[in-house]
Design a protein that fits this description.
This protein has one domain: Glutaredoxin (3-Layer(aba) Sandwich). It is 39% helix and 19% strand. The protein contains four helices and five strands, in the order αβααβββαβ. Strands 2-1-3-4-5 form a five-stranded mixed β-sheet, with helices on one face. Strand 3 and strand 4 form a beta hairpin. The longest helix has 15 residues. The radius of gyration is 15 Å and the shape is globular.
Length: 127
């Protein structure tokens, strides 16, 4: 088996961009609740339920709510990554149901990121 080089990984990353983000999708917003064991232990199910409730009550058809495994930042759980088409992704941390509701109302519906709960805005890579 041949070893992968940095250039090979960059090519793979570039070829996958359209399949792992919202630019080509039909959704305007993607909310990913990180539900690894650390996230679940910290309360990620409560966060998922809060977002499920808000999405249902909003009757929006352009929002997708998904779950993923651990994001590698266990001490910041529960956390989500929120992607709005045309904007940089935002990673929100140390959430509870009330914070989730505020994020939904202000960021998802209103278009204004909630800096109070944001750990990072933008890509997690530097190249």
């Amino acid at each position: 088996m041949t070893k992968l080089k940095i250039e090979d990984l960059k090519k793979i990353k570039e070829s996958m961009k359209g399949t792992v983000n919202l630019r080509q999708g039909e959704y305007r917003v993607k909310i990913t609740v990180h539900m690894g064991t650390c996230g679940i232990a910290a309360g990620a199910r409560t966060i998922m339920n809060a977002f499920l409730d808000k999405v249902e009550k909003s009757e929006a058809t352009d929002i997708i709510l998904t779950a993923s495994g651990c994001a590698g930042l266990c001490n910041h759980e529960p956390m989500i990554t929120l992607e709005v088409k045309g904007s940089a992704p935002v990673k929100y941390v140390k959430l509870d149901a009330n914070k989730a509701v505020r994020i939904f109302d202000e960021h998802v519906l209103g278009g204004n990121p909630v800096a109070d709960y944001a750990l990072s805005i933008g890509s997690e890579t530097t190249y």
